[in-house]
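Chapter review: from sequence to fold.
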Amino acid sequence: MNVAVLGAGYAGLMLARRLERSLPSSADIVVVNDRPDHLVQHELHRVVRRPALADRITVDLDDVLDRAEVRVARVTDVDHEAGVAHLDDETGESALDYDVGAVCLGAETAYYDLPGIEEHSIPLKRLPDAARIRKEFLDLGSRDRAVVGGAGLSGVQVAGELAALADEEALGCEVTLLEQADAVAPNFDADFQTAVRDELESCGVVVKTGRTVERATDTAVEFEDREALDYDQLVWTGGLRGPDALGGERPLIPDTLKLGDGTFVVGDAARVTDTDGAAVPASAAAAVREALTVAKSITRIVEDDRDGVFEPRPERFRFDAPGWLVSVGDGAVGQVGPRVVRGAAANTLKSTVGATYLSVVGAPSNAVGLVRDEP
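The token string follows.
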């Protein structure tokens, strides 16, 4: 039986590693990713200030996968009814047939057709984005302003990192964080939101909430009902859309995480409703836990193909948030249950989360290096 894991982000890598252990040797596993390594996405903002960390947060897939075949290619389309993934690599276009597949392609930055936003801004999804943000930011003068659009956790982290970089380099420029909602970190508890805003402002970030962006020119962000805000650099972290292989959509899927017979979607590529009927937040924590659920379902399908006695019952996903952590410059804010923590306790959590994940996926040397490089 041919099993395809499309994408090697948090969901794809965790799923592939689990399937390597749970599937019989007769099953073939192929992992398709647009690059030969895995990126620890939630640490990407740190590369803006510490470029050397790029090596710590990238893991060669061949080093952490034992039996899966790794194919470096871009997934351009998924026909889940036919069980075919269409690929594009340096040799041209091809098709990959699978018996069971998992779409783990993550999400892309959403610009919502706002005029000028995509043209004039930089996202933060890949290492070259971090390098470009850093380069342009270091060119700013003391009267200049960097604007970060979107105060979800990614926006909070990049704004905090830019403020810390400005302080280290004595740039004197302003860092402003914009959010459409009335609070930073929308959809989180009010105490967490307040703590995050306090941490941002203590780092020197100017926070502007209740700002609905309408468009951007090459010098200003314009709002629906506010005066325009001039900028010299614009970073956009204002939302998510689905991968191109799914037509840019994030399909709504049930707690079985099934897109169709034989095809699952895992991670940010879909909007998931768990077994309690709750919407699952797009996050690394959710992606990893969804991968463990889908690994059980795929294993049952493969085993059923081998004995054919009963139709396999898919595992159902329930998301139990372990807590939340956001990095803000050299500080952090965490929430464990109802308790919100800052200061030393949050920094201790911050120093262990990325390292623990790297150890789990089989990259202990990266984990040690990441902890050693913590400020």
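Two observations follow directly from the output. The first strand starts at residue 2 and ends at 6. DSSP finds ten helices and 25 strands in the chain.
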